[in-house]
Design a protein that fits this description.
- This protein has 272 residues and is of the alpha+beta class.
- Helix content is 19%, strand content 18%.
- The longest helix has 15 residues, at 257-271.
Amino acid sequence: MPETPPAPLPLPVAAPGKGDRRVLRAVLRWTAAVAVFAAVGSATAYGVTRMERTDVPGLATESDGRWDYPELTAAPLPSGSPGPFAEENKAGAHYADLRDLVLSAPEGAKEDEALRGKDGWLATDVFLKEYRDEADRDELRPMLVDEGLRHIAAGGWTTPDGTHTRIYLLHFDTAAVVDELQSLHIAPFVGPSYTVRGTDESVPDEDYPVKAQLDDLTYSFYVEAEPYGAEQVRQAYFGAGDVLAVVLQSRKGGAEAVPFQQAVVLQSRLLH
């Protein structure tokens, strides 16, 4: 039996209005607890998809809805380069090719070719299409430029049950930039600053298991509140050194928690 996660932080009675966003960004810090999870060296080959089901809370039975992913191997580091969480790597830099760190599609899924980009790098405007409002896209675009966005690696797929997964890895110069972007501007604890297309209201996902979060990574999880429209959307933003990872998963009738948690765990391990 997994341990009971700590009680969630209290939420405000009403979500902050658009006019309050900049004030929130100046004062809010993401403070959710992060527990120790099995870490894996980024330069060593490992099987991240064949974990025992009891290794991840919520994934303990044969019929829990997990997907079968192909065996993955961590991308090799250039000779003499440290991993992103090595003590000597103060910037939290990923020296491996970021395109090799995107989680591959599970077996039986249809890949989203539009997310492959040119030479494996995705145009910023394609990523920004994930956000519903043009005003949000217009605000995010210069923000990413000003914060030194280097490039975006991405991938996505649709499984036979209709679940659509999109993963974006946004690469910046330092971990400090990523931490500020995530906690103050894009994904504060109280709720996402920008509305993802297909959603009206998203709230913190208090049911995401703490034990499924890797040490050294900083997470923000959201789920679309009921009543939602034709699809429900789950969101994860997490800082892994100089990379801000965005995982979005949607499904008609409701996005299941287990496939979402599995995708986040595996993507986290690839970036660790």
